[in-house]
Amino acid sequence: MNSETTAPVTVLGLGLMGTALARAFLAAGHPTTVWNRTATKAESLVADGARLAPTVGDALEAGGVTIVCLTDYPAVLDLLDDAALEGATLVNLTSGDSAQARETAAWAEKRGARYLDGAIMAIPSSIGTAEAVILLSGPRPDFDLGALGTVSHLGEDPGLASLYDVAGLTMMWSVLNAWLQGTAMLKTAGVDAATYAPFAQQIAAGVAGWLPGYAEQVDKGAFPAEVSALETDARAMAHMVEESEALGVNAELPKLIKAMADRAIAAGHGGEQYPVLIREFERP
Ligand code: FVH
């Protein structure tokens, strides 16, 4: 056991995720104090060596870092409103948006706490493995949460972890929706989801490989058509809409994709490359 894993930690909130966090700390050797509104949820952790604090105040006094993982930010404020936070180090891993994170940081700092906001981009069963991505933002941490997974500090702005979280969720659901659209189309020809999945996986991996080059174009604000012009892409998008309608499957996503490209073309960007659509995404 190294000195970092002997650092005490406290976990407030023992839902599915909070329990996984506390279990990973215990497994790594951290002296772990836990508290949950419904105390019975702590039983198995206590059996594995966690200390159950009788009150939130007692939990906060246990020393070290206090991880907060509740349903939402109102629950966090509700729980900690009457607590003595002077000198505490809080890491709030509850999901929310960047405005909530910044407001909660200001609220906690006013009460004398050091506050980091965070986001967990993982499911409970992956906590404690390198696959679990934990994002932190706020003051640079002088503690180690490596027991939980792959932890990255994104910067001083406490809203950053939530912003990355929401950006990541947008990517995740967009990819899944695109896969489901293709699956619905192929099912009409008797191709099942499992047959299409490896093909879709290959496309997704290929597209992922374009991102660094496309990011360079976005950052420079210059979109030379090195591979394909947007107006060429738009012709393929028309096939996607027509095919969906002809097959009698949902055409909302193909229409949305095409409508955004059409607007950019109407604004004079038809000869540029796809990432020029950032202009559409940047608009309210
Ligand atoms: N589970 C997951 O896969 C996702 C992965 C990505 C990140 N999320 C976020 O993590 C937060 C907690 O999620 P969870 O899955 O642990 O949620 P639950 O199992 O529903 O547990 C909720 C805990 O919050 C406690 N709680 C709620 N309201 C209050 C309150 N007013 N005062 C005190 N505690 C409160 C609740 O207590 P109890 O009902 O057991 O007494 C649970 O401990 C969440 O932000 C996800 O978006 C997880």
Automatic annotation (TrEMBL):
UniProt keyword Glycoprotein present: no
GO MF, one annotated term: NADP binding
Domain 6-phosphogluconate dehydrogenase NADP-binding, chain residue ranges per copy: 9-122
NADPH-dependent reductive aminase-like C-terminal domain segment(s): 157-282
Entry keywords, A to Z: Oxidoreductase
Coiled coil residues, start to end: none
Chain segments annotated as transmembrane: none
InterPro entries in UniProt: 6PGD_dom2 (IPR013328), 6PGDH_NADP-bd (IPR006115), HIBADH-related (IPR015815), HIBADH-related_NP60_sf (IPR051265), NAD(P)-bd_dom_sf (IPR036291), RedAm-like_C (IPR048666)
PANTHER family referenced in this protein's UniProt entry, alphabetically: CYTOKINE-LIKE NUCLEAR FACTOR N-PAC (PTHR43580:SF2), OXIDOREDUCTASE GLYR1-RELATED (PTHR43580)
Family: Belongs to the HIBADH-related family.
Protein name in UniProt: 3-hydroxyisobutyrate dehydrogenase
Gene source species: Amycolatopsis azurea DSM 43854
Lineage: Bacteria, Bacillati, Actinomycetota, Actinomycetes, Pseudonocardiales
